[in-house]
Amino acid sequence: MNCSHVNFQMNRRDFFSKFALGLGGAALFGLLRKDTFASASAPDHSLKGILDVPHFAPKAKRIIYLFMSGGPSQLDLFDYKPLLNKRNGEDLPASVRMGQRLTGMSGNQSTLPLAGSIFNFAQHGQSGAWVSELMPWTAKLADELCFIKSLHTEAINHDPAITFFQTGSQLPGRPSMGAWLSYGLGSTNQNLPAFTVLISKDRIDQPLYARLWGNGFLPSTHQGVQFRSGKDPVLYLANPDGISGQSRRKMLDKLGELHALQFQDLGDPEINSRVAQYELAYRMQTSVPDVMDISREPASTFELYGTESKNPGTFAANCILARRLAERDVRFIQLYHPGWDHHGGLPAGIRRQCKDVDQACYALITDLKQRGLLEDTLVVWGGEFGRTNYSQGKLTPTDYGRDHHPRCFTAWMAGGGVKPGFSYGTTDDYGYSVTENPVHVHDLQATILHQLGIDHEKLTYKFQGRYYRLTDVHGEVVKSILA
């Protein structure tokens, strides 16, 4: 090998490593045909997972994860605590707090006044689940939902807490849950990514980094692909202006040959990952516009999901897209709805948030059930932590705020083999700590993987000399919530 050849290889590797940062970047450079590589000794791994078959029979085929970024107040939504109303304004007892650390946002307050919810609660359905007046549509689903009221986490601030939920670690760099599922099970739709992401527009109050749906140290084919509202749902997917399909085809064929040679020379598996991304991008040029076009949905769909569902990029519109992606067997569909970080002005803020999501969540569950999809689709709703039982800042009869609270909070699940009309775990009368059946973040992750037929202890990847998994060295499947 002469010096010029070495320089050529290094320059190409540097170019691709910097340019093909994601599916969008890969698609801008090239959209490769599947048959290009069949004869070029570069195997197609775009559809395959590392597991030939699941570890055991799955209850769910796919997941729709409705992530409420910012930390919804469980005390104003699902965890009814009449004692807080009775003792409203009294200082949080030291015997309840027990020296637990607080954030810098409320830790320096001279008092921590208990804040009862100003919203009315009632029991719903045969299950008798407590739901506040903020969620009248969700209340209708009481007998479809499995409430987990004893979630707890280790992180007290947003970024590490969200990262922990999505990747199993508070530190950046680990693969996200959707990436692990793609790595383990692969894709069941050759024309769409196994892992897609939708973010509600106009609700960002905390940053959401692309690493939250990244592949970490897994091959890059497993990273999540963000779908956006607007002209270009996936960035750089379309051919650049002035490039004809024929000329693009010829260039891509030659590029495929070069990739095959590079793979034979270097043996770098990321070359094949890049190839798989190009292939998928090519197929997505027709599949993405189709799935994103909700104009052909009947009027009854928009009536079910609410008027905001006609507004692309809203949570309601994204819920329709989630159903459409589920119909096409996308493995992991992640919706982020930010805006739940109510340190002050909670009553007004949470009213707005609930208006965004309440009817849309009801519609999604109802729609999936009507289409026979809920049985094998696991829907998860929740945030990165809960909110405090005391007020951050001034407490008035009509207004209060709540700080971050990792010790206890609520999420719900539906479909996918979990018990409907069931509540699991309890918190104390003050809504401050878990008193029965605690569920850690790793327990929830282990349970989600279990429903897709994966033993969370066996789905591992060796990186830098040790084996990693989503749940690290922790996690127990919460068998009590499984149907």
UniProtKB/TrEMBL annotation:
Gene3D superfamilies: Alkaline Phosphatase, subunit A. It comes from the Bacteria. InterPro entries: Alkaline_phosphatase_core_sf, DUF1501, TAT_signal. It holds the Pfam family DUF1501. PANTHER family: BLL7424 PROTEIN, DUF1501 DOMAIN-CONTAINING PROTEIN. This is Sulfatase. It comes from Pedosphaera parvula (strain Ellin514).
